[in-house]
Amino acid sequence: MNSIDSITLEVADPAAARAFYAEAFGLDTQLRFRTADAPSTGFRGFTLSLTVAQPADVDALVDAALAAGATTTKPVAKSFWGYGGAVQAPDGAIWTIASSSKKNKGPATKQFGDLVLLLGCADVAASKAFYVEHGLTVARSFGRKYVEFEAGSGPVKLGLYGRRALAKNAGVPAEGSGSHRMALNGGGTPAVDPDGFAWETARVDAS
């Protein structure tokens, strides 16, 4: 368990979800889908994030997501950290799209730099210890507030954030219960972290 090969999202309609992510964000092998109706209410405790080079790219991806059926949870705006916003995909997963730049340097594109999975943790330090023990390497750490791990050979970076702070960043209430309806796919022995997020070795994809 030293890198994330892909993310499995549990959705009502795998074919529709696959089509949405291809159209909105140009994602393919980074995401897997399987049918599931596990009960889940409110915030699922995680967000997925695309980082881009400039504000125009944020707008291009957000506009594409909305046109494909997403809804806004946090309107795009400038902030102290840059420029970005958040949307909720038709399957319920929340995505943030952001740039550290506040100025455009060229024509808009739908290209992104990093795909980041942020997990909302009850105790960031405890979750950090779990992932370090399971082979991940810390890239950046800000005490009990935020941790980012090296991506390794995988296409997805992993970060840890306090649950309430993560929900606020996504523009949604922090309350939620039931299944996360998401699993991390990677090598090593299957495991479940302190917040109930499951690592799986099988790469399950629905037809």
Automatic annotation (TrEMBL):
InterPro entries attached to this UniProt entry: Glyas_Bleomycin-R_OHBP_Dase (IPR029068)
SUPFAM superfamilies: Glyoxalase/Bleomycin resistance protein/Dihydroxybiphenyl dioxygenase
Highest taxon of the lineage: Bacteria
Protein name in UniProt: Glyoxalase
Organism from which the protein derives: Nocardioides antri
